[in-house]
Protein backbone atom coordinates (compact mmCIF):
# COMPACT_ATOMS: atom_id res chain seq x y z
CA UNK A 1 0.00 0.00 0.00
CA UNK A 2 2.79 2.46 0.89
CA UNK A 3 4.40 1.84 -2.51
CA UNK A 4 1.13 2.73 -4.28
CA UNK A 5 0.70 5.91 -2.24
CA UNK A 6 4.31 6.96 -2.92
CA UNK A 7 3.88 6.31 -6.64
CA UNK A 8 0.65 8.34 -6.69
CA UNK A 9 2.27 11.30 -4.88
CA UNK A 10 5.29 11.12 -7.18
CA UNK A 11 2.89 11.23 -10.15
CA UNK A 12 1.10 14.34 -8.78
CA UNK A 13 4.24 16.30 -7.86
CA UNK A 14 4.96 17.80 -11.33
CA UNK A 15 1.37 19.01 -11.66
CA UNK A 16 1.51 20.75 -8.29
CA UNK A 17 4.84 22.38 -9.01
CA UNK A 18 4.01 23.63 -12.49
CA UNK A 19 0.56 24.99 -11.70
CA UNK A 20 1.60 27.14 -8.73
CA UNK A 21 5.31 27.88 -9.18
CA UNK A 22 4.86 31.33 -10.71
CA UNK A 23 1.86 32.43 -8.67
CA UNK A 24 3.59 31.82 -5.34
CA UNK A 25 6.07 34.71 -5.56
CA UNK A 26 4.62 37.78 -7.24
CA UNK A 27 7.68 39.84 -6.21
CA UNK A 28 10.50 37.68 -7.58
CA UNK A 29 12.39 39.34 -10.46
CA UNK A 30 11.78 37.39 -13.66
CA UNK A 31 12.77 40.05 -16.23
CA UNK A 32 15.71 42.41 -16.41
CA UNK A 33 15.79 45.19 -19.00
CA UNK A 34 19.03 47.09 -19.48
CA UNK A 35 20.90 49.24 -21.98
CA UNK A 36 19.58 52.49 -23.43
CA UNK A 37 16.83 53.13 -20.91
CA UNK A 38 16.09 56.14 -18.70
CA UNK A 39 14.32 54.28 -15.87
CA UNK A 40 17.53 53.23 -14.17
CA UNK A 41 19.78 50.51 -15.43
CA UNK A 42 18.79 47.76 -15.05
CA UNK A 43 15.01 47.83 -14.73
CA UNK A 44 13.72 44.74 -12.98
CA UNK A 45 10.23 43.30 -13.20
CA UNK A 46 8.32 40.68 -11.30
CA UNK A 47 4.98 39.21 -12.37
CA UNK A 48 3.37 41.66 -9.96
CA UNK A 49 5.06 44.67 -11.58
CA UNK A 50 4.19 43.45 -15.08
CA UNK A 51 0.57 42.91 -14.07
CA UNK A 52 0.44 46.49 -12.76
CA UNK A 53 1.03 47.74 -16.32
CA UNK A 54 -1.86 47.99 -18.80
CA UNK A 55 -2.88 44.51 -19.94
CA UNK A 56 -3.30 43.37 -23.51
CA UNK A 57 -4.52 40.12 -24.98
CA UNK A 58 -3.84 38.37 -28.25
CA UNK A 59 -5.88 35.40 -29.37
CA UNK A 60 -3.98 33.54 -32.04
CA UNK A 61 -2.73 30.20 -33.25
CA UNK A 62 1.01 29.59 -33.02
CA UNK A 63 3.27 26.87 -34.39
CA UNK A 64 3.89 25.75 -30.79
CA UNK A 65 0.29 25.23 -29.64
CA UNK A 66 -2.76 23.26 -30.71
CA UNK A 67 -5.53 25.61 -31.84
CA UNK A 68 -6.00 29.22 -30.85
CA UNK A 69 -4.68 30.42 -27.51
CA UNK A 70 -5.57 33.58 -25.63
CA UNK A 71 -2.36 35.18 -24.38
CA UNK A 72 -2.34 37.93 -21.77
CA UNK A 73 0.51 40.27 -21.01
CA UNK A 74 1.86 43.73 -21.59
CA UNK A 75 2.40 45.35 -24.98
CA UNK A 76 6.13 45.59 -25.54
CA UNK A 77 5.55 49.18 -26.70
CA UNK A 78 4.01 49.98 -23.28
CA UNK A 79 6.88 48.30 -21.45
CA UNK A 80 9.42 50.25 -23.52
CA UNK A 81 7.59 53.52 -22.76
CA UNK A 82 7.53 52.66 -19.06
CA UNK A 83 11.32 52.32 -18.92
CA UNK A 84 12.15 55.10 -21.39
CA UNK A 85 13.81 52.84 -23.97
CA UNK A 86 15.71 54.88 -26.56
CA UNK A 87 17.39 52.28 -28.75
CA UNK A 88 16.66 50.92 -32.20
CA UNK A 89 16.74 47.22 -31.37
CA UNK A 90 16.12 44.88 -28.48
CA UNK A 91 18.26 41.83 -27.87
CA UNK A 92 16.04 39.31 -26.09
CA UNK A 93 17.62 36.44 -24.17
CA UNK A 94 15.87 33.29 -22.99
CA UNK A 95 16.62 31.12 -19.99
CA UNK A 96 18.54 28.71 -22.26
CA UNK A 97 20.60 31.63 -23.68
CA UNK A 98 18.74 31.67 -27.03
CA UNK A 99 18.97 35.23 -28.36
CA UNK A 100 16.91 37.13 -30.88
CA UNK A 101 17.30 40.71 -32.04
CA UNK A 102 14.01 42.50 -32.55
CA UNK A 103 13.77 45.93 -34.18
CA UNK A 104 12.16 48.36 -31.75
CA UNK A 105 9.93 49.44 -34.65
CA UNK A 106 8.19 46.04 -34.34
CA UNK A 107 6.86 47.05 -30.93
CA UNK A 108 4.87 49.92 -32.45
CA UNK A 109 3.93 48.46 -35.83
CA UNK A 110 3.28 44.80 -35.02
CA UNK A 111 2.04 45.15 -31.42
CA UNK A 112 3.58 42.00 -29.87
CA UNK A 113 3.00 41.36 -26.20
CA UNK A 114 5.20 39.99 -23.48
CA UNK A 115 2.78 37.29 -22.36
CA UNK A 116 2.70 35.91 -18.84
CA UNK A 117 -0.59 34.01 -19.15
CA UNK A 118 -2.10 31.62 -21.69
CA UNK A 119 -5.79 30.78 -21.49
CA UNK A 120 -5.96 32.40 -18.05
CA UNK A 121 -3.08 30.43 -16.52
CA UNK A 122 0.37 31.75 -15.68
CA UNK A 123 2.96 30.43 -18.09
CA UNK A 124 5.37 28.03 -16.43
CA UNK A 125 8.83 27.14 -17.67
CA UNK A 126 7.34 23.90 -18.96
CA UNK A 127 4.79 25.97 -20.95
CA UNK A 128 7.38 28.31 -22.49
CA UNK A 129 7.12 30.79 -19.63
CA UNK A 130 7.32 32.63 -17.47
CA UNK A 131 7.41 35.20 -20.30
CA UNK A 132 6.78 34.63 -24.01
CA UNK A 133 6.83 37.20 -26.82
CA UNK A 134 3.69 36.72 -28.90
CA UNK A 135 2.82 38.44 -32.17
CA UNK A 136 -0.79 38.67 -33.41
CA UNK A 137 -0.25 36.04 -36.10
CA UNK A 138 -3.90 35.47 -36.99
CA UNK A 139 -4.56 39.21 -37.38
CA UNK A 140 -1.53 39.58 -39.67
CA UNK A 141 -0.93 36.44 -41.77
CA UNK A 142 2.16 38.09 -43.28
CA UNK A 143 3.79 37.53 -39.87
CA UNK A 144 3.54 33.76 -40.21
CA UNK A 145 7.16 33.55 -41.29
CA UNK A 146 10.42 32.32 -39.80
CA UNK A 147 11.50 35.92 -39.19
CA UNK A 148 8.61 36.60 -36.79
CA UNK A 149 8.63 33.09 -35.34
CA UNK A 150 12.32 33.52 -34.45
CA UNK A 151 11.44 36.78 -32.66
CA UNK A 152 8.82 35.01 -30.55
CA UNK A 153 11.22 34.18 -27.78
CA UNK A 154 9.88 32.02 -24.98
CA UNK A 155 11.25 31.75 -21.46
CA UNK A 156 12.38 35.39 -21.74
CA UNK A 157 14.73 36.42 -18.94
CA UNK A 158 16.32 39.65 -20.18
CA UNK A 159 16.11 42.38 -22.79
CA UNK A 160 19.04 44.59 -23.77
CA UNK A 161 18.09 47.82 -25.51
CA UNK A 162 20.73 48.83 -28.06
Automatic annotation (TrEMBL):
Keywords: Signal. Residues 1-21 form the signal peptide. The keyword Lyase does not apply. It comes from the Bacteria. Coiled coil: none annotated. Residues 41-135 form the Oxidoreductase molybdopterin-binding domain. InterPro entries: OxRdtase_Mopterin-bd_dom, OxRdtase_Mopterin-bd_sf. This is Oxidoreductase molybdopterin-binding domain-containing protein. It comes from Roseibium marinum.
